[in-house]
Amino acid sequence: MNSDMMYLALKGGRVDVISGYSTDGRIKSFNLSILEDDKNAFPPYFCAPIIRQDLIQKHPEVADALNLLAGKMNDSIMTELNYRAFMYNEAPEKIAEDFLKSLGIWKPDRKQGGEKLIIGSKIFTEQYILAHLFSQLINGYTEFDTDIKAGLGGTNICFEALKNNEIHLYPEYTGTGFLVILSPSESEVDQLIINAEALYDYVYNNFLEKYNITWLKPLGFNNTYALMMRREMAEETALKNIGDLVKFSK
């Protein structure tokens, strides 16, 4: 089942548990409950801008602007922003501006009309919002203008575009960089899947060494995979984590 069908099937009671994304706006829209991952079934997927190192070396002010978001977005905040897009069909640009204003770090576009930075994104709502957050910070705090190439496709398309200098940065997730791009050994997966900081250090060092691409500071939210169910059912069955689900299934 694709994700849209899964969420609708869960909401309608046709299935009881699905695997979704921990910051999906439909969690709030459909009143779902996330089961705590007490089994370390899923790796950390902390989000951060990744950017070409040659650009950072030449223009460190770009990293300074983007790092204004470092640690400012927890799971609940990102879920709320996604919820606004899903429930009220608000434009990602408006959602981004409102959020930056709530932090007191929004600045109007300088509109310098000079060199442009191209910001890419994958093809889902959260990435569109993040791309606009990055764009507005760069426009407000640097001499660059930005263009957004939203909805480029999946991870490999965005990453190849970044490697080939077709885009300059895009939002990526540590778990995706780790598993999809770096393809670690089984022992590395077992060692790092339970340690978010060590996993970030691993992707940071490997991306810089192999691709000359830098991971900036994480934004603060972890959009990992998650098992979820309708909240009323979770409360009725007292299911709080994946371990409870395993016991319940027996």
What are its keywords?
single chain, 250 residues, alpha+beta, Dipeptide-binding Protein, domain 3, 2 domains, three-stranded antiparallel β-sheet, 13 helices, globular
**CA radius of gyration:** 19 Å
Strand content: 5-15%
The fold-level CATH name of the largest domain is Dipeptide-binding Protein, domain 3
CATH class of the largest domain: Alpha Beta
Termini Cα gap: 25 Å
**Series of H and E elements:** HEHEEHHHHEHEHEHHHEEHH
CATH architecture field of the largest domain: Roll
Total number of beta strands:
8
**What is the makeup of the main sheet?**
3 strands, antiparallel
The backbone outline, from C-alpha atoms, is globular
Number of helices: 13
Tally of domains = 2
- Assembly type of the chains comes to single chain
With strands numbered from the N-terminus, the spatial order across the biggest sheet is 1-8-2
Structural class: alpha+beta
Contiguous low-pLDDT stretches (5 residues minimum) are none
The level of helicity is 40-55%
Mean pLDDT: 95
